[in-house]
Amino acid sequence: MLAVAGATLLNVLAKVMFHRPRPDELIAVLREPGFSFPSGHAMANAAFGIALALAFWRSKAGWPLVVFGVLWALLVGASRNYLGVHYPSDVLAGFLASTAWVFGLYLTMGQRWPALRRAPAGEHDTRPPLKRPAVRPADEK
């Protein structure tokens, strides 16, 4: 939830800051209001896909979700260019901004709550167990 909400807020702030107009309406299949840079659809969908993959990375669904997230984001980005409502740089900037936001969020939350990095490990966990330091008994003298 934080990944998509943060990416959306970041998108609104960037659009207000850059004020980039949309591509020429004569070649656009669809007409959209507002500014072009960065693509909000690309940002939100990339944030969702990356967050989903990170949340389920240690399960059997890890790789399929990564593939699904990447393909989903690429298809959404391609559709925004095909419809003529964004320049390719708008979509690329949306992908990069979402990637930075979600990985930053993941690293920050992982430091604050280390148990999140182990989720949802369980009986179907496909990754090797996390290494924990060996506990030695205190030296007796």
Short characterization:
The protein contains 4 helices and no strands. The protein is an all-alpha fold and about 140 residues long.
Summarize this structure as a short list of keywords or feature phrases.
mainly alpha; 141 residues; elongated
Number of strands: 0
Strand content: under 5%
Global morphology? elongated
Helix-strand topology string:
HHHH
Assembly state (oligomeric): single chain
What structural class results from the helix and strand content?
mainly alpha
Percentage of helical residues? 55-70%
Low-pLDDT sequence parts: none
Termini separation comes to 54 Å
Helical segment tally?
A: 4
- Largest beta-sheet details: none
Computed over alpha carbons, the radius of gyration is 20 Å
Tell me, rounded to a whole number, the average pLDDT: 77
How would the blueprint of this fold be written?
Layout: H1 2-18, H2 40-55, H3 62-82, H4 88-112
Helix pairs in contact: 1-2, 1-4, 2-3, 2-4, 3-4
Written description of the protein model:
This protein has helices at residues 2-18, 40-55, 62-82, 88-112. The protein has 141 residues and is mainly alpha-helical. The longest helix has 25 residues, at 88-112. The N and C termini lie far apart (54 Å).
